[in-house]
Amino acid sequence: MSSSQALIVPFDPSAPSQAVAGVLPLQLWSLTPSGDKAPKAGATATFYNTPAGKTTTISSVGDGFAAKASEAKRELVRKSVGAAVKELKAFEGVKDVVVDASLDPHAAAVAAHLALYKFTLKTNVPSPFDPRNAEPAKDKIAFAPVEASAEWDRGVVYAQSQNLARTLAEYPANMITPTAFTERVRKEFEGIANVEIVVRDEAWAAEKGMNVFLSVTHGTSEPAKFLEIIYKGAADKNAAPLAFVGKGITFDSGGISLKPGAGMKLMRGDMGGAAAVVSAALAIAKLQLPIGLVVTTPLTENMPGPSATKPGDMCVSSTP
């Protein structure tokens, strides 16, 4: 029976055995029916009550790890920790997991939180991802490193931001309308310093002569939005900011040029660009990186309707 507390230990099968939190990974691996070959990266084994009161999953980073280039090492650590998390999360009752992140704290944190993620709204009701929830979704498992570090904390921010992008792109279109998208963004950025959120409406877009954008909105009853996220982290306030632009079609039916029905529901993901740039901005703002950043994303649905833009229609400027 698994414990509520667990330990993840990535290990190099070709390195001398070293104890981690009371665990000797090579010694444990020798107890498995593994044969003579060194285990491949991501090969795992789980042991109960090892050490006493804990469940331990050891996971290989592959043979010859020490000789690999730094980026290759980072990817192997991700693979190893991710495989261990996927194995552990299948056990009921595991709540707190300590990760030996000594090989690469950043990569270990990213892998742990990405591997834990599972979008459950479509299959489980109520769901922690239900946008009507007063509180945000809580992780099924809480992770902590054996030794705390700034790089681990930084990796957690990376992963959480990536998981936000995954969640936004997974939501059904009726739950992530342009209005709902902007409301979620406001909530995610609450309390973060140096950030300004500006949400523009269709009247503003018309004043700016954004007629091509507005033409996409003609077939839907959902109000379009134009979202701006302004992050002022640069020391030189006069320096030109970095700009991110993300496509935000929260459902793309194709309009009058209707797309085939097979796979149509996947068109909820046509706002993946917006999800990506918003989530990248969230990570940048949480980490308070010393840059200026402006994120813009037009948000609307593209639907058929009596006023929808027709093939061959022309969009002209507001004034001759």
From TrEMBL:
Identify its protein family: Belongs to the peptidase M17 family.
Q: Which Pfam families match?
A: Peptidase_M17, Peptidase_M17_N
A GO molecular-function annotation: manganese ion binding
Q: Where are the transmembrane segments?
A: none
SUPFAM superfamilies, alphabetized: Macro domain-like, Zn-dependent exopeptidases
What's this protein's name? Cytosol aminopeptidase family, catalytic domain-containing protein
Q: GO annotations under biological process?
A: proteolysis
Q: Which organism is it from?
A: Ephemerocybe angulata
